[in-house]
Amino acid sequence: MSTLNLFYDLLEQDGDPFRRHPDNLCALQLTAMQERFAQRREQIKLLGRRAADTGIDEIRNETDVVPLLFAHQIYKSYPEQFVENGRWKHLNTWLQTLTSRPVTEVDVDGVDNVDAWMDRLRGAGHHVFSSSGTSGKCSFINQTRADLDHVTASCVKLGVYGNKLIKRDFGKRPVFLMMPPGGAHRHIGPVLSAATQLGGESTLMFDEPALASATIAMGRMRRALADGSAKPSEIAAFQEQAVSRQRHTGAMIDRFLDKLLAHRDVPVLVQGNWSLHWTLVEHARRRGVADRICHPETVITTGGGLKGSQAPADFREQIIGFYGIEPANVQNSYGMSEMIGTGPWSDAAQGYAICPWIVPFVLDKAGEKLLNPASGKGIVEGRFAFFDLLAEGYWGGFITGDKVTIDFSPEEPTDGLEGPLVRQVGRYADLEEGEDKLSCAGTMESYVRGMIDV
Prior knowledge:
With 454 residues, this protein is of the alpha/beta class. The protein has a domain at 146-334: 3-Layer(aba) Sandwich (Rossmann fold). It is built from 15 helices and 14 strands. The strands form two sheets. Strands 1, 4, 5, 6, 7, 8, 9, 10, 11, 12, 13 and 14 form a twelve-stranded mixed β-sheet that branches. A two-stranded antiparallel sheet has the order 2-3. α14 links the parallel β7 (299-303) and β8 (330-334).
């Protein structure tokens, strides 16, 4: 039996994956990475090229994996004119270099924007998702139906085993989701699906899908404003749209807040990132709504940073006070859209758990040198990278923009958590030292350019 099946079982079977690791986890992870590499090197063009150029024909240890990890920038390495000029066949060709399933034959006739392109691919079984793309250039990553189902399952696991109150009230709590009914982001569909299992009735904050085309247009206008190329008529139209969008967003938040207030006598589950929770706090205060708006056994799930929002240093404490809950009722987690499964924060352990199918790597800032302790024990600081053993539609090796501190050998399991713990997280782009382009990214992008007809 394939070792990979063991990791699928850890996700799909009953039980807590954060507190039930196999005794020989590291050895099993290495074997599973070897299996994945043997499968994917022939399927994913960029991986095959990278393996050939680095002389890696098999994975013998963790160090062999490092040159094969894909920098996060590579998923936005397509020429922008592919999107701007509607060259969807060329975009398919680019995507093919990064995916394990054939996409180049998908019919794109009649596609008129990037969201229609994604819909066409989804209709053919390629569930492409995009990043938020605040710069105006989105990342695109292909995934299978199984990948989506695994993300849903991981969301349920996080809910059930990340907070005792959610587990106690499984399937019963009203759920308030700070998200749209659909869109380009990976977690929208799976979180909506998971919500139907974790709780009862669901309320969404937003009523319009989050479209990649809107994000791209916003980023394009920001660049035009910054370099002075925007026409007065374009600026006027942009400002008018911004005012209209802000008005509509305010109305949606009002509706969400009113429904939440109407449930203040029962425990509910409120899902959102820190930025959206803070947005709700500010909106409520402008309306004169007092703190402690929820039942004291309400649970909020959260994660991520402020996403560019401005907030005081104690915004977390203010959010907790706004809902009127105990800190233990906050289910914080660490992960990212490129990863199947996020790890819950534990106050007792003072760290984020890591899913057993996620193999953590700590690299130097340049993303070239492995800093994981050779002994398997110790605390290391550096750039976070990982290998997702469950990824099927894309290569599971990924280098992030996060600076982390990982404890590879907690003295003893605390709160029942086993394996490495992420002690601290920050983004290089937000830190004083800043972010540098990963040294491997330029090489990978040159590979991609050589594989597509621009």
